[in-house]
Amino acid sequence: MFSPRCVFDACACDQGGDCECLCTALAAYAQECNNRGAPVNWRSQLLCPMQCDRRCSLYKPCISTCPFETCDNLMTNSKLTKSCSEDACVEGCSPKVCPPDFVYLNESYAECVPRNTCKPVCMGE
């Protein structure tokens, strides 16, 4: 049922901004595939490219919505990850993976630091 609607939406792109319209229709179709556990690697440099900045290693059609472990969420990350681990994945730019025993300094995901240098913040401080 979703596929014919996707084709209809993609073929209906007949005004200015056709590429954006086509990309939006394809992205919606791909997200529905993600929701059903069947990620589609459909983007390329020629078809609806997604530009990732230098701190992100590459585009992936299916990345987790769970937050990465940071110094700021060190004490709560396991609970956060449990609550979102069953969510459908989304396409996007995936940050570089920190080496073993390292975590991200903060939510910018720009810098990995040794886990033992983190000073976890307690609630109320």
From TrEMBL:
Keyword tags: Disulfide bond
UniProt-listed InterPro entries: Mucin_vWF_Thrombospondin_sf, VWF/SSPO/ZAN-like_Cys-rich_dom
Provenance organism: Dendroctonus ponderosae (Mountain pine beetle)
GO cellular component, one term: extracellular space
Cross-referenced Pfam families: C8 (PF08742)
UniProt-listed PANTHER family: EXTRACELLULAR MATRIX GLYCOPROTEIN RELATED, HEMOLECTIN, ISOFORM A
Name used for this protein in its record: Uncharacterized protein
Entry's transmembrane regions: none
